[in-house]
Amino acid sequence: MQFELSPDQEALRDAATSLLADRSSPEAVRAVVDAGGGWDRGLWSELVDQGWAAVVVPEDQGGLGLGWVEGAVLMEAVGAHVAPVPVLGQLVALDAVARAGEQAWLDRLLAGDTIAAVTHRPLEAAGDTVTGSTVPVPHLPSADALVGPTSDGRLVLVDLAGASVESLPAMDLTRELGRADVDGLGVVELGGSEAVEAFLDAGAVAVSAELLGAAGRCLDDTVSYARDRVQFGRPIGSFQAVKHRCADMLVDVEGMRSTTWWAAWCLAAGDPERAVAASTAKSWTSDAGDRVLNSALQVHGGIGFTWECDVHLYLKRVQLDRIWFGTATEHQDRLAGLLRERVESGRSVI
User: Which of 61, 209, 282, 344 meets the CB 3.0–4.6 Å disulfide criterion with 204?
Assistant: First the structure.
């Protein structure tokens, strides 16, 4: 099968790229960071007005009725511009809430005034409430709701009204990070084990797409820098060692692209392979994204470590995305479990 974006999907990609190139340029991102970090509420309002939050929600529930291929298109653009907005968590939460048919919360999240944070780490369940505190979660300090699995295998939405949330220092200054005390807070149940699996798959695909966007942008910027930077009277891109490193970056990015788009298609189509595809994508993009950014840093040399160079913005974004919704090792373990069932039953793993 040859997978290509449709004309409508290409138009969506071009529109998203054009908007973020203007509203989330390196200068705009640095302005958010210099103002204390967090996120750009003006940009967020603009994205909501253009329907970004509604992409994965069915039309009969107030959404655009598209799907996760379009969602991945948007997340790749977000990654390519390190956009300081909570769009990833909002998309994943909206997908889960829409599946559960919780229209009241769905309407609030679609409006964009209510912000959702998402975590893949189980919350400790205690009947109709949760206990304890969360792990560090992106955008939690500004969130009104938290969506995640529980220790007893359910997917829940926790209303954070009145919750005590601690802001935490983060490497990635374009996103807030926080931990919440959720002891005794009530939950809205969004489903059982199947809902949890769908939630984890959606999160893995969304983060993989963001990693792809960041790595692809850094590959382009690094190749451009290697062409322009002159050393010993020659562009450094003409040196064999630099050529090989850039070639390795390209191989990694194309692998990220193949696995991410396969996973996004499987998710959108409800394909039986969606869990395998999602874990394959997250496993590959977590490790490959790290390799690409390390290579970008090496090719840029000393300037790559400076505040003026954009590489550090992407490097910091990638470090958090590598572990959000599961590390490469965790997804490799999940894949092993999924494929073992097939081997033991005599089915093909391909």
Answer: 282
Helix (H) or strand (E) holding 26: helix 26-34
> How are the residues of the chain apportioned to helix, strand and coil, as percentages rounded to the nearest 5?
60, 15, 30
C-alpha 262/C-alpha 137 separation (Å) is: 27
The DSSP secondary-structure symbol of 183 reads T
- pLDDT tens for 246-299 read 999 999 999 999 999 999 999 999 999 999 999 999 999 999 999 999 999 999
- Residue 74 scores a pLDDT above 80: yes
pTM for this prediction: 0.95
In sequence order, the 6+-apart residues with CB closer than 8 A to the CB of 127 are none
Distance CA(269)–CA(267), nearest Å, equals: 6
Angle, CA 75 vertex, CA 73 and CA 79 arms, to 5°:
120
Residues 6+ apart with CB under 8 A from 240: none
Handedness of CA 42, 44, 48, 51 (dihedral sign): positive
DSSP codes joined into one string, 122-178: PBEEETTEEESBPPPEETGGG-SEEEEEBTTS-EEEEE-TT-EEEE---S-TTS-EE
**Residue 43 buriedness (CB in 10 A; 0-12 / 13-18 / 19+):** buried
Assigned CATH topology for domain 195-341: Butyryl-CoA Dehydrogenase, subunit A; domain 3 (1.20.140)
pLDDT score for 279: 97
The first and second tokens of residue 95, run together, are: 């997908």
Average pLDDT over every residue of 139-145: 96
